[in-house]
Amino acid sequence: MLAALTAFAITSAARLLTGARALWLGCTAQPVQRLYYANHSSHGDFVLLWASLPPELRRSTRPVAGADYWQRDGLRRYLIHQVFNGVLIDRERGSAHSNPLQPMLDALDNGDSLILFPEGTRNLEEGLLPFKSGLFHLARARPQVELIPVWIANLSRVMPKGRALPLPLLCTLSFGAPLQPLETESKEAFLERARNALLAMAPEEA
Questions:
Q1: Contact of 43 with 180, CB cutoff 8 Å
Q2: CATH code, residues 2-199
Q3: How confident is the model at residue 40 (pLDDT cuts 50, 70, 90)?
Q4: Which residue has the higher pLDDT, 175 or 1?
């Protein structure tokens, strides 16, 4: 009950403070298993994307986040596990035999959708950093899951680093068409195509 109330408060606050609106430009808000991949410029990115989904989709969509950040204290652990139902990944290298993608593969096999930031770290510059290889390997391993590019516009301007109060700018989240992996496509070609598909969703002023 407390987790549900906390989730409602967070989603309501996120939409109120940012004026966020979801633009379903290349797909519709259907209950289909998906991997939403987005640009990453703020710690609030996954919260805003998660909050922008209709409740039916939000219940089955889990953000992928770094365990090193979200396991630091009790409050963060409560939020990521009980409220967001996140999938935590170890960004430190484990053993040579461990698969860092396994928690995400397990979540997909459970029928969940995921929110992923393939740049791998926050990008405070314009454009996109090169994508990490995880998106390619997930697409190859689970080809039935739709890959949806989502451009988050203006969040870094609404909540700039070092500012306590948000600025009154409208945030938009543009959801693109599903990206289809090709059997003969190399990792490099796929990641470049995925990156270009995400850039194509950016408004001109972003």
A1: no
A2: 3.40.1130.10
A3: confident
A4: 175
Whole-number Cα distances in Å, 177 to 25, 74, 194: 7, 38, 11
Whole-number average pLDDT of the chain? 85
E-state strands within 57-162: 61-66, 87-89, 113-116, 146-153
Residue/partner pairs of 156-164 with CB below 8 Å, 24 or more apart: 156/41, 156/42, 156/124, 158/17, 158/18, 159/18, 159/42, 159/44, 161/124
User: What integer pLDDT is reported at residue 116 of this predicted model?
Assistant: 95
Beta strands 172-175; 61-66: pairing state: unpaired
3 state SS of 153: strand
Query: What pTM, to 2 d.p., does this model score?
Result: 0.87
